[in-house]
Amino acid sequence: MTHSVLALHHGYRVAGGEERAAEQLADLAERELGERVAWLRRDSTAITGVDAARGLLAGGLGGRQVTEALERTGADLLHAHNLFPTFGPVALRAARKQGAAVVVHLHNTRLVCAVATNVRDGRDCTECHGSWSVPGIRHRCRGSLPESVAYGAALPRWRKEVVAIADAVIVPSLAARSRLLALGLGVPLNQIHVVGGVAPTIADRSTASTGRFALLVGRLAPEKDIATAIEACAAIGLPLVIAGDGPEAAALQSLAGCAGAGRGGAPRGRPAAGSQRQSVGGRAAGAERGGAGREGVGVGRGDPRRRAHRRVAAGARRPRLHGVPRPRRRRRARAAARECAG
Predict the structure, then answer these.
(1) Is the Cα dihedral 17, 281, 319, 208 positive or negative?
(2) Residue 64: CB partners within 8 Å, gap ≥ 6?
(3) Are residues 11 and 70 in contact, defined by beta-carbon separation less than 8 angstroms?
(4) Which pLDDT value is given to residue 340?
(5) Cβ distance 268 to 291 under 8 Å?
(6) Which among 23, 244, 257, 278 is most buried, taking Cβ atoms within 10 Å?
(7) Do 107 and 32 form a contact (C-beta atoms < 8 A)?
(8) C-alpha 329: how far from chain center
(9) How far is residue 226's CA from residue 164's CA, in Å, rounded to a whole number?
């Protein structure tokens, strides 16, 4: 079967919104435009750290695999999502040699920032920009020094080639375009196209006003600022259900308990596999019954911290963060959570 598009993506250690967005765009192209989309995927969970570093420093691995995929599918357009660490410009060169057009989709700031979020220690960070990546190495933004050095050496080296090969660059929003231009991406404004998220269905009207709780779905990471949502909902007594997982899970669990965790009107039921679920309210305390799951969030009846959570729910020790700048809000929220959990 002949395909017109070869979509390419290197999956992350923890799948997230980027994978979903890429798949939804491919579905939209097939359903609405009549395009046939084939996939070439790799995954960080299936490679070693040595292979990842080798791919980064070499600008990609296995260009022949891309060539074979284009020949097999007959695709005349390569739609590249996440290129690093193993695809890189090598994959784009292979597509060029086959005569395929190249579209690079930047879902984040990976070409400039080693962690792709421009967040460090809970604060916005733009120290790395253009070809300057020394701060990412100095701060060890990738966790370990060797991995930070690999990214710091590779990204400035390959950024220019990636954008030079691309016939078009896609970003998810006007804000993302402005951020990338400010960070020195090096692409002319007229070459960057904004393609928003896909909404498969749209409701005739909103029913939010009849809801009994707020729902937050996302990766539990610092750049999401989920602590603000927890504190805000607790302040007005609105139950909040969180579905997601990530590096902030433990801190957010503690903060949610301090803010007053409980049923608070949230529905019973089992959360999606692999997700954290938390009902946060300013009035009720205790674990949500039947909804936490194996990795669920909440405080059980036998937990010695329960008395502290009751006091917080009653207003005795709830963190008061209104009017405090966001970075400090996050730090104070986490400090309050630690105090409550201690």
Answers:
(1) positive
(2) 94
(3) no
(4) 53
(5) yes
(6) 278
(7) no
(8) 21
(9) 37
* Residues counted in the chain: 342
CA 58 to chain CA mean position, Å: 26
Burial of 206 (0-12, 13-18, 19+ CB in 10 A): exposed
What CA–CA distance (Å, rounded) separates 316 from 86? 52
Beta bridge mates, 300? none
Q: From the CA atom positions of the chain, what is the Rg in Å?
A: 23
State the burial class of residue 226 (Cβ atoms within 10 Å of its Cβ: 0-12, 13-18, 19+): buried
- 38-96, pLDDT tens digit by residue? 999 999 989 998 999 999 999 999 999 999 999 999 999 999 999 999 999 999 999 99
Angle at 317 between CA 315 and CA 318, to 5 degrees: 65
How many helices (DSSP H) and strands (DSSP E) are in the chain? 11, 11
Helix axes 63-73, 88-97, angle to 10 degrees: 40
Both tokens assigned to 196: 């928003």
Q: Taking 80 as the threshold, does the pLDDT of residue 13 lie above it?
A: yes
